[in-house]
């Protein structure tokens, strides 16, 4: 986990000790907050650069969030928020959202949401869910963490890059550079960049390996159907390939929107009217 994520987590814990969130909810009642989650893993400890930015919240910690929200706030669906219905005037209104479509959104998050009877919206990157294509950020995370090499050197366009992997700090530097580069590069070439770096890192069969782990696997159709049937889960589009959409040409961006919308509707049997970036 990054130093920034550690500091923020520490500050949040201190704030709860002094009841600052409760005071905020009391004095700013009636407003709406949208909380965005990603994965909800069972494990609490991560190796290498895994969960370096703290995007994934361990199941036990997530349950504490829900306990607080159930007691102190008013959790509503995204649809209710957009339609301005079922809002509380005396409590903070909370909308829970989950990006990407990880399997642990079902096995951990949805199980807890059902226990506490709280609604949520799950935004699916549909190539991940429908074609089971691992997310690019997970490929970066896994490859950098699990490479056995002490040094790599590769060419991208006309430039050569060389990285030492002799310490966690060095791996973090490579990880951060790759994450940034994958967002900045022409998105239609992102896969080629990943292939180049992963090949040099020497980590074989990443797609097959990633899908063996719950923290990297996507939701299944059966799980999504069960979630829809509960009445607690809504589904939205989170694009097709999880591209950095502002860097796409208009035609390709439209394809990402329309195809992902169509696939979400096929998965859920419901209209898909919302998109999250």
What this model shows, in words?
- This protein has 277 residues and is α/β, with parallel strands linked by helices.
- Helices cover 49% and strands 14% of the residues.
- It has twelve helices and seven strands.
- The chain has helices at 3-17, 20-27, 59-72, 78-83, 104-116, 126-130, 136-146, 168-184, 190-201, 206-210, 221-230, 250-268; strands at 32-37, 74-75, 93-100, 120-124, 151-156, 159-164, 233-237.
- Strands 1, 2, 3, 4 and 7 form a five-stranded parallel sheet that branches. A two-stranded antiparallel ribbon has the order 5-6.
- The chain is globular and about 60 Å long.
Shape: globular
Main pleated sheet = 5 strands, parallel
Question: Given the structure, what is the number of helices?
Answer: 12
Order of helices and strands: HHEHEHEHEHHEEHHHHEH
Structural class by secondary-structure content: alpha/beta
Proportion of strand residues? 5-15%
Computed Rg: 20 Å
The averaged pLDDT comes out at: 92
- Note the gap between the termini: 23 Å
- Helix proportion: 40-55%
Low-confidence stretches: none
How many beta strands in the DSSP annotation? 7
């Amino acid at each position: 986990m990054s130093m920034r994520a550690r500091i923020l987590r520490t500050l949040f814990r201190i704030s709860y000790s002094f009841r600052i969130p409760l005071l905020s909810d009391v004095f700013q009642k009636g407003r709406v907050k949208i909380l965005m989650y990603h994965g909800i893993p069972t494990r609490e400890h991560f190796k290498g650069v895994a969960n370096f930015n703290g995007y994934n919240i361990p199941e036990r910690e997530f349950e504490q969030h829900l306990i607080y929200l159930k007691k102190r706030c008013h959790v509503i669906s995204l649809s209710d928020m957009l339609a301005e219905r079922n809002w509380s005037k005396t409590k903070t209104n909370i909308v829970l959202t989950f990006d990407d479509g990880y399997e642990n959104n079902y096995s951990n998050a949805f199980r807890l949401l059902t226990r506490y009877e709280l609604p949520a919206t799950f935004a699916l990157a549909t190539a991940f869910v429908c074609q089971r294509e691992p997310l690019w950020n997970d490929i970066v995370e896994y490859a950098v963490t699990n490479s056995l090499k002490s040094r790599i050197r590769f060419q991208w366009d006309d430039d050569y890059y060389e990285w030492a992997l002799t310490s966690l700090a060095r791996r973090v530097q490579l990880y951060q550079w790759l994450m940034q580069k994958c967002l900045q590069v022409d998105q239609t070439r992102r896969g080629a960049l990943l292939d180049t770096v992963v090949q040099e890192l020497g980590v074989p069969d990443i797609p097959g390996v990633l899908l063996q782990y719950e923290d990297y696997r996507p939701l299944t159709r059966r799980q999504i159907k069960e979630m829809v049937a509960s009445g607690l889960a809504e589904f939205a589009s989170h694009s097709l390939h999880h591209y950095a959409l502002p860097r796409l040409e208009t035609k390709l961006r439209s394809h990402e929107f329309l195809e992902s919308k169509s696939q979400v509707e096929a998965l859920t049997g419901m209209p898909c009217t919302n998109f999250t970036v």
